[in-house]
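Hi R.,

As promised on Friday, here is the backbone we talked about, encoded as structure tokens. Could you run it through your design pipeline when you get a chance and send me back a sequence?
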């Protein structure tokens, strides 16, 4: 039985962005909000995806829906459902769009029939609520199958794909052939980079929109050093006295939250000392994020007693694997990481922790990510493929240098003045040496980090994202 659920997001005042984006950008945003309010009078803007928590799309919807509501637009967020077979198929499509075979399974007529069956059932449920004058913004491959039924009911339908590959191969072709029949009727499509648009869509109605971060969400809000430490001690990532200061933060609805749940941590020995430099990667447990590669590169070059003050540690941080509804491979990938960690010499194992964050409370989860990004001296995103990589913008916003692979959207964010871009994401030697270089030169790390923050302020804050959406909807509804 398919049930489409809805996520309630508190209204977030657009005005608060002014302190970050300045008066001129704020004026442009308010004027676009005004036009959008007229455009959407009597219509609802639906966002539809396949998980309420975990991953970049959910992260953005948690705030963009709130800002849109404060612009006076009727906006709702629905989450589709599926069985394990459906999510195995959509994860396969996800991997193949990134040019990777994934679990090696087929995308054939049997999978197409199951995909159509599940997405059609979701569309029927959704159509009990969506009206013909509404606009529906569908996110990612899980929802592409809803396009035909929603279009047939008269709604305007935009499909946004947050993933992609700069190169074509037989896997990308297979995945796009699978999705193509569903997408034919969409009023418009959105991709994160021009390179991600499949060849058969290049003449169509396609917009390129980069994702964004929100400086005020629990994920990115300012936290002083004392609070950062208190949160990380409470969550179990750092050594210290759990009761020494309050581990509190501001929730999206403005109330005060507290860290109540510790993380699940695989580690040998006590938590790292707060004074020791931390290298960090935050990712879902997904093979394409290459947490194992990060561990090996760190172990080979940065865990040496001759690097920095000789006491650097690595934290690999992801969600508890049961917490991400549409990612069935998380448990398996985490187990592979733990196996790889167990193979390391004891003295290196003691420098590395594998952390699974609680997912019961989305704001609590977010603020732990925020605190660990602020605590880290260097942030890595050594993905083998990446849609955009929100974790990169998040880390840069905290003034940290990024060591990332030159793949997908990571290249759009990290310049040589903000960190180190790894030409070959499989090159663990260069990666590990890059980490060691920045650990040896904290001043340079700090300089790159300051540039990184400025780059996010100029390019990856939500006002730009909302303006681009406003322009797109104007074209779609106007047509
Ligand atoms: N994330 C999180 N908690 C976790 C792990 C990840 O909130 O335990 C967030 C992370 O901070 C980022 C998003 O999930 O906002 C991941 O987005 P990204 O674009 O980096 O990758 P995706 O998961 O969409 O492939």
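Update: got your reply. Pasting your designed sequence below so it's all in one thread:
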């Amino acid at each position: 039985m398919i049930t489409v659920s809805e996520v309630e997001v508190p209204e977030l005042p657009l005005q608060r962005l002014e302190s970050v984006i300045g008066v001129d950008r704020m004026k442009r945003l308010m004027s676009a909000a005004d036009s959008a309010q007229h455009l959407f009078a009597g219509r609802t803007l639906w966002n539809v995806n396949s998980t309420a928590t975990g991953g970049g799309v959910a992260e953005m919807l948690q705030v963009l829906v709130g800002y849109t509501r404060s612009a006076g637009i009727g906006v709702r967020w629905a989450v589709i459902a599926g069985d394990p077979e459906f999510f195995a198929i959509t994860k396969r499509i996800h991997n193949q769009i990134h040019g990777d075979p994934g679990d090696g399974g087929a995308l054939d007529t049997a999978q197409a029939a199951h995909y159509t069956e599940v997405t059609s059932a979701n569309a029927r449920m959704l159509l009990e609520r969506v009206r013909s004058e509404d606009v529906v913004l569908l996110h990612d491959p899980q929802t592409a199958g809803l396009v035909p039924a929603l279009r047939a009911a008269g709604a305007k339908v935009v499909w946004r794909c947050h993933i992609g590959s700069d190169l074509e191969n037989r896997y990308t072709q297979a995945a796009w052939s699978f999705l193509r029949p569903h997408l034919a009727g969409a009023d418009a499509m959105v991709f994160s980079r021009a390179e991600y648009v499949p060849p058969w869509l290049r003449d169509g109605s396609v917009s390129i929109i980069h994702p964004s971060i929100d400086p005020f969400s629990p994920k990115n809000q300012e936290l002083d050093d004392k609070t950062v430490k208190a949160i990380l001690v409470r969550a179990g990532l750092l050594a210290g006295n759990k009761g020494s200061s309050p581990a509190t933060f501001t929730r999206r609805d403005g109330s005060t939250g507290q860290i109540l749940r510790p993380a699940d941590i695989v580690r040998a020995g006590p938590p790292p000392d707060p004074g020791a430099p931390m290298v960090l990667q935050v990712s879902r447990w997904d093979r394409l994020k290459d947490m194992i590669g990060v561990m090996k590169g760190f172990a080979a070059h940065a865990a040496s007693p001759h690097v920095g003050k000789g006491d650097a540690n690595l934290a690999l941080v992801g969600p508890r694997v049961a917490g991400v509804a549409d990612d069935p491979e998380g448990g398996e990938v985490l187990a592979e990481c733990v196996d790889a960690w167990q193979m390391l010499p004891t003295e290196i194992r003691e420098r590395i922790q594998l952390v699974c964050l609680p997912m019961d409370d989305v704001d609590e989860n977010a603020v732990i990510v925020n605190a660990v990004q602020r605590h880290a001296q260097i942030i890595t995103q050594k993905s083998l493929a990446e849609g955009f990589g929100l974790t990169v913008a998040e880390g840069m916003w905290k003034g940290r240098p990024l060591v990332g692979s030159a793949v997908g959207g990571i290249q759009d964010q990290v310049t040589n003045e903000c960190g180190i871009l790894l030409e070959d994401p499989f090159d663990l030697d260069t990666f590990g040496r890059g980490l060691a270089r920045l650990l040896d030169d904290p001043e340079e790390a700090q300089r790159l980090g300051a540039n990184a923050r400025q780059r996010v302020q100029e390019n990856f804050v939500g006002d730009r994202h909302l303006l681009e959406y406003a322009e797109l909807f104007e074209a779609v509804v106007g047509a």
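One thing I noticed while checking it: The chain is about 40% helix and 15% strand.

Thanks again,
M.
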